[in-house]
Amino acid sequence: MQASATDFIPLMIPALNDADIALAVRVLKSGMLVQGKEVEKLEKRFADYIGVEHAIAVSNGTASLHLALLALGIGKGDEVIVPAFSYIATANVVELVGATPVFVDIEKHTFNIDVAKIEAAITSRTKAILPVHEFGLSCDIARISEIAKKHNLFLIEDAACSLGATEGKKQTGSFGQFGSFSLHPRKSITSGEGGILTTNDAELAATIRILRNHGIQTINGKMEFVVAGFNYRMTDFQAALASSQFKRLEIILEKKRKLARRYLSGIKNPLIQLPATPADKVHTWQTFHVVLQPPLDRDKGIEYLKSKGIGSNYGAQCMPAQTYYSKKYNSDCAKKFPNALLAWKQGLALPLYDKLMEEQVDFICTVLNELE
Ligand SMILES: *Cc1c(COP(=O)(O)O)cnc(C)c1O
Questions:
Q1: How far apart are CA 307 and CA 303, in angstroms?
Q2: Any ligand 1 atom below 6 A from CB of 79
Q3: Atom of ligand 1 minimally distant from the CA of 65
Q4: Which are the contacts of 208, defined by CB distance < 8 A and separation ≥ 6?
């Protein structure tokens, strides 16, 4: 199959079908536009699926991380351990509550935080570990959970990319005080913008519900404004859109896994490092991310793929190397975070979604195998 300008293969197409859209339209026609019954239904679905007591829907996956840190009382003077490689929101939320992100390098092949380096980053100021399940693969979350318990630290999982990913028998988002999910169109299912917090702690769940809705708490049937809260609510038509796709989640993920296996066997270029697939984990392939080895140049790779009608992009950032963080903390990233730096500079995210066809994957592999 030869791609042309008219059948460009985009990096992402959301997993929406006509039934999903019809459901959202039905909610729109009902006139119930803000947070209501559809949000409640989505929350119930999420909690059941992840295997936790509570799920709280919010406006996006950054708002959910922000609220998690606030609910745990993390702020000025506190340190939070984060991987050096993630979408920038993971570190931004730590800054937003006035705390300090302490970066830890990632493993070269999983793109997840290197567990062996976490304990050396813990100080008397450390309050929490905020690991990421990067690109839909669980980090070593059981081991991280043990480290958190041993040092009396909170554990917040940035599960923005990892809905459906497991380690052992447990879903990501069920290990820590909080799991934080995103329903952005780049993730496996979407509400447009959207986020979900999961927790087993009833008190924390109640705090999140208050904070997301202007600080309102109902006391003895009376509405009281008990804290200066946010409006971080999700709308009902967004929730309906996500709920509708949620019913197909396993089908969507299975399709993506099949296509990922096709990439793994189809890419034969020795200058392209393939992503790891650890045996005790189920990957959800939110992103199929490879790393180009020198002399291949990632930006030239993106241009070449584009010239062949294939959309691609970098995968995530080496966060301490971004302008705000490098000005503030001036880390020697090449020395401290070599794997994060390489994944950011040479990493390449390839098209992977349920609507992608096998022949398209084969074509992308052919083009990748030509890179030299
Ligand atoms: C997408 C993403 C976020 C942010 O989610 P939004 O819903 O876009 O705010 C945070 N962390 C990671 C790892 C992500 O991939």
A1: 6
A2: no
A3: 10
A4: 56, 58, 67, 68, 71, 197, 199
Q: Which atom of ligand 1 is nearest to the CA of 182?
A: 7
Q: In a 3-state reduction of DSSP, which class is residue 217?
A: strand
pLDDT (tens digit per residue) in 119-153: 999 999 999 999 999 999 999 999 999 999 999 99
The per-residue pLDDT for 6 is 58
Can you spell out the DSSP letters for 183-198? --TTSSS--SS-EEEE
Question: Which position has the token pair 């630290």?
Answer: 153
> Is the CB–ligand 1 distance for residue 82 below 6 Å?
no
Q: Is 238 in the pocket of ligand 1 (CB under 6 A)?
A: no
Residue ranges in the chain whose pLDDT is less than 70: 1-6
Å from CA of 7 to ligand 1 middle: 29
User: What's the rounded Cα separation, in Å, for the pair 183 and 201?
Assistant: 22
Residue type, 152: N
The amino acid sitting at 240 is: A
Residue 292, strand partner residues:
272
| 182 touches ligand 1 (CB under 6 Å) | yes
Q: Which of 162, 161, 111, 106 is nearest to 282 (CA)?
A: 162
Q: Is the CB of 86 under 6 A from ligand 1?
A: yes
Give per-residue pLDDT as tens, 89-112. 999 999 999 999 999 999 999 999
> Residue 140: CB within 6 Å of ligand 1?
no
Give the model's pLDDT for residue 1.
47
Cα separation, 46 vs 55, whole angstroms: 6
| Nearest protein Cα to ligand 1, atom 6 | 61
Above pLDDT 90, what percent of the chain? 98
Phi, psi (deg, nearest 5) at residue 350: -110, 160
SS3 166: strand
The two structure tokens encoding residue 211: 């904070």
How much is the pTM? 0.97
Paired tokens of 52: 């936790």
Q: Quick check: helix, strand or coil at residue 354?
A: coil
- Cα torsion through 291, 294, 295, 301, rounded to 10: 20
DSSP H or E stretch at residue 79 = strand 79-83
Please tell me the predicted confidence (pLDDT) of residue 7.
Answer: 86
Ligand 1 atom 7, closest CA: 61
**Which helix (H) or strand (E) is 347 found in, with range?**
strand 347-350
